[in-house]
Design goal:
With 296 residues, this protein is α/β, with parallel strands linked by helices. It has one domain (15-248, 279-291): 3-Layer(aba) Sandwich (Rossmann fold), CATH 3.40.50. 39% of the residues lie in helices and 18% in strands. Strands 1, 2, 3, 4, 5, 6, 7 and 8 form an eight-stranded mixed beta sheet that branches. Helix 6 links the parallel strand 4 (143-149) and strand 5. Helix 6 (158-168) crosses helix 9 (223-233) and helix 7 (185-194) packs across helix 8. The model is unreliable at 1-11 (pLDDT under 50).
């Protein structure tokens, strides 16, 4: 790096680990301020509030059930990375032999614990703790299933997170994750808004996501990159698919960033029928499933 002070060039070294930790701290702070999905809860009664969040998730992302396959988890030990407000985690608690949930933020762990208490889920059915996906605090071969929906693309070293998933899975165990797809309507909208509209045509889809979708440093992948991500981590029998997310259809409840008059116009005029007609090919959600080799 250069420092032009006093008309001189000074070269300084940058510690990559410090940069990574700084980014991770920014990601933590983003989600600490608003747990994923929490904006859909409006009721004063807390249990009703949680159920509103869960209902919105079911309405906007109806394919979660068929991807997660909660009802096939009987007798299994499950880890969910990134529990959010607990909408998926409570399903693991209801179906699995035992469920463990981790999240980078204290807010998500507290909300999920509150939801489970309100629903009367016995304490011996689950464990919740804050943890870093790149350094999971569990022994090798601890789980039959590891599940993560829209989380691992936020951590700075996503490959390391997948390696950690492989490590904590039992031989033959299954990983099911969703990360973001770069060739998507959402990425295109961000590029149009923050690239072309601001005189930055070289921004590109990938960098538009990296800089402007949710927490800083969010990554997005092609289908082939997503498959290779899992294979390079050590998974076999890898399958990928894309799905339209509610952001692709602008069916999401706008965040504070998109409350102006222009945003309201865009939400009203957005061509949802066309997006649906073109199908899931350009969906933001990249679903990745794989299996840990049985002989490991």
């Amino acid at each position: 790096m250069s420092d032009p002070s006093n008309g001189r060039i000074r070269v300084t070294s940058v510690d990559p680990r410090a940069e990574t930790e700084a980014l991770k701290s920014r990601v933590h702070d983003h989600w600490e301020r608003e747990t994923c999905g929490a904006r859909y809860g409006e009721a004063a009664d807390r249990l009703t509030w949680f159920r509103e969040i869960a209902q919105a998730r079911q309405t906007l992302e109806p394919y979660i059930d068929s991807f997660a396959r909660f009802d096939e988890a009987a007798g299994e030990r499950v880890l969910e990375i990134g529990v959010g407000a607990g909408s998926d985690f409570i399903e693991w608690c209801r179906h699995a032999e035992h469920a463990t949930g981790v999240d980078l933020t204290e807010a998500a762990i507290a909300l999920t614990a509150e939801r489970l208490a309100l629903e009367g889920v016995p304490d011996n059915r689950f464990v919740l703790k804050t943890a870093d996906a790149e350094a999971l605090p569990f022994a090798d071969a601890s789980f039959d299933i590891v599940y993560s929906w829209g989380v691992l693309h936020h951590t700075p070293n996503t490959m390391q997170a997948y390696r950690e998933v492989l490590r904590v899975l039992k031989p033959g165990g299954v990983v099911r994750t969703m990360v973001y797809h770069v060739h998507s309507w959402t990425a295109l909208m961000l590029y149009l808004m923050y690239g072309l509209a601001k005189g930055r045509p070289d921004l590109g889809l990938r960098k538009a996501v990296f800089e402007h979708l949710e927490s800083p440093g969010t990554k997005a992948y092609t289908r082939s990159e997503g498959a290779e991500l899992a294979r390079a981590a050590g998974f076999e029998k890898v399958r990928v698919a894309t799905r339209l997310g509610p952001g692709d259809l602008l069916e999401i409840k706008p965040s504070a960033r998109y409350q102006g008059a222009l945003a309201r116009i865009v939400w009203a005029l957005y061509p949802r029928p066309l997006v649906r007609l073109l199908g899931d090919r350009f969906g933001l959600y990249l679903l990745i499933e794989g299996r840990k080799p049985a002989d490991e």
